[in-house]
Structure to design on (161 residues):
């Protein structure tokens, strides 16, 4: 969603827009894990800053509840895979027990990763912005308004006034 898109009268969210799949899963997970997610989000004040810098459209409580939900969903398939591999005598299957822990960790760390990629994209655009600003600053544009609206006060010769 772009800046201002979906905002109705007086900055309210337009509820007629369809929810994205991410929003639907986040809403479902928040309904299920509302209490623990609020408590965990309060314990992580840096999460809100990371979410704002990463430009993700989710609250800290929503992200924590999503992490709880995805971790819970990953437990059953992980247990099945580990059980099958152990039944086949493959002890290396115990490595898969790390999947739920990794699911939670990656979900919670994702805003920090996204923040870093957003910052590098902005750094990549900086030379173009500087060039554009120098073109604007070097121009001798005169507005139709009074002298206070001019980019630069241009003094015309008396014969042109």
């Amino acid at each position: 969603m772009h800046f201002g898109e979906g905002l109705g009268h007086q900055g309210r969210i337009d509820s007629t827009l369809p929810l994205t799949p991410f929003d639907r899963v986040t809403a479902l997970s928040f309904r299920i894990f509302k209490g623990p997610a609020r408590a965990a989000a309060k314990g992580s004040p840096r999460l809100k800053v990371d979410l704002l810098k990463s430009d993700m459209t989710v609250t800290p409580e929503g992200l924590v509840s999503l992490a709880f939900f995805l971790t819970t969903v990953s437990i059953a398939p992980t247990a099945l895979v580990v059980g099958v591999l152990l039944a086949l005598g493959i002890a290396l299957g115990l490595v898969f027990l790390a999947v739920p822990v990794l699911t939670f960790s990656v979900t919670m760390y994702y805003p920090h990763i996204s923040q870093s990629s957003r910052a590098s994209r902005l750094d990549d655009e900086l030379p173009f912005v500087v060039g554009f600003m120098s073109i604007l600053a070097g121009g001798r544009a005169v507005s139709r308004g009074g002298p206070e609206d001019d980019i630069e006060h241009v003094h015309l010769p008396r014969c042109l006034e």
